[in-house]
Amino acid sequence: MNQLLSILKSIAEPLTKPETYQHFASKAIMVIVYLIVAWIVIRILNKIIQQFFKLQNRGNKGNKKRSKTLISLVQNIVSYVVWFIVITTILKKFGISVEGIIASAGVVGLAVGFGAQTVVKDIITGFFIIFENQFDVGDYVKINSGGTTVAEGTVKSIGLRSTRINTISGELTVLPNGSMGEITNYSVTNGTSIIDIPVSPEENIDKVEKQLSEYLITIRSKYYLFVSDPTVIGINSLNRDEIVLGITAETIPGEGAAGGRILRKEIYNFFKVKGIKMPKPLMVQYDPDKE
């Protein structure tokens, strides 16, 4: 019983001394100061990184998306380094051996590494995605895994472990980098709009092609997404009910489908103004007496 009282007294005795609270208060203030300084340093370094890449790519519009990707990556690495330095410094101030923790972490990490193979795979794949420039922030991509599409949309951010993709319907998909198989990037090369326009067989097809070709030249100046003038490539098919004209146009990357929708609307309105007939289904009346 006396031993228990002695232990409790030894524990409670420091709590009765003002020096104890002064010591803890000074340590707490020190920790808060270190955290505030780390936050300020990270903000300043992030601004410097942004300005650096902005100056590097001034006047070079083609590298803007690439810069966003690298800015995000470098800022993440800087944040990890700064917080690691701050945490190890705080631990040293409290008299904790950082070297011992790192040595122990190395042994534990070796054991845990076998169970964290997917994380390592994600990080390695993230490095290849970024440095091989497979896609950048802002690109429209389709990601397949095992022959199945797992995500399709605009890349919002690329990290070492995962990539965030905003789908066309608004959902945010977070994919581990290691789970990506086949990657289709629609934003690297120019797109192509290819559409079919049906025309009534009653029309003079040569005249229609000439009028349509003259009108298509004016469309490019109205819409930024067209890289070249839309052109009539000729008759794709014909039958008793209709003649189908093929129209094609080169667009900026990822806008082939949007260009097709614009062309259909513009050509429809042009046909209405010019009185060009579109095909109508023929109704044939069945007369059993003629059999």
UniProtKB/TrEMBL annotation:
<keyword id="KW-1133">Transmembrane helix</keyword>
<dbReference type="Pfam" id="PF21088">
    <property type="entry name" value="MS_channel_1st"/>
</dbReference>
<feature type="transmembrane region" description="Helical">
    <location>
        <begin position="96"/>
        <end position="116"/>
    </location>
</feature>
<dbReference type="InterPro" id="IPR006685">
    <property type="entry name" value="MscS_channel_2nd"/>
</dbReference>
<dbReference type="InterPro" id="IPR011014">
    <property type="entry name" value="MscS_channel_TM-2"/>
</dbReference>
<comment type="similarity">
    <text>Belongs to the MscS (TC 1.A.23) family.</text>
</comment>
<protein>
    <submittedName>
        <fullName>Mechanosensitive ion channel family protein</fullName>
    </submittedName>
</protein>
<dbReference type="InterPro" id="IPR010920">
    <property type="entry name" value="LSM_dom_sf"/>
</dbReference>
<keyword id="KW-0812">Transmembrane</keyword>
<dbReference type="InterPro" id="IPR023408">
    <property type="entry name" value="MscS_beta-dom_sf"/>
</dbReference>
<feature type="transmembrane region" description="Helical">
    <location>
        <begin position="70"/>
        <end position="90"/>
    </location>
</feature>
<dbReference type="InterPro" id="IPR049142">
    <property type="entry name" value="MS_channel_1st"/>
</dbReference>
<dbReference type="InterPro" id="IPR045276">
    <property type="entry name" value="YbiO_bact"/>
</dbReference>
<keyword id="KW-1003">Cell membrane</keyword>
<keyword id="KW-0472">Membrane</keyword>
<dbReference type="InterPro" id="IPR011066">
    <property type="entry name" value="MscS_channel_C_sf"/>
</dbReference>
<feature type="transmembrane region" description="Helical">
    <location>
        <begin position="28"/>
        <end position="49"/>
    </location>
</feature>
<feature type="domain" description="Mechanosensitive ion channel MscS">
    <location>
        <begin position="118"/>
        <end position="187"/>
    </location>
</feature>
<dbReference type="Pfam" id="PF00924">
    <property type="entry name" value="MS_channel_2nd"/>
</dbReference>
<feature type="domain" description="Mechanosensitive ion channel transmembrane helices 2/3">
    <location>
        <begin position="76"/>
        <end position="117"/>
    </location>
</feature>
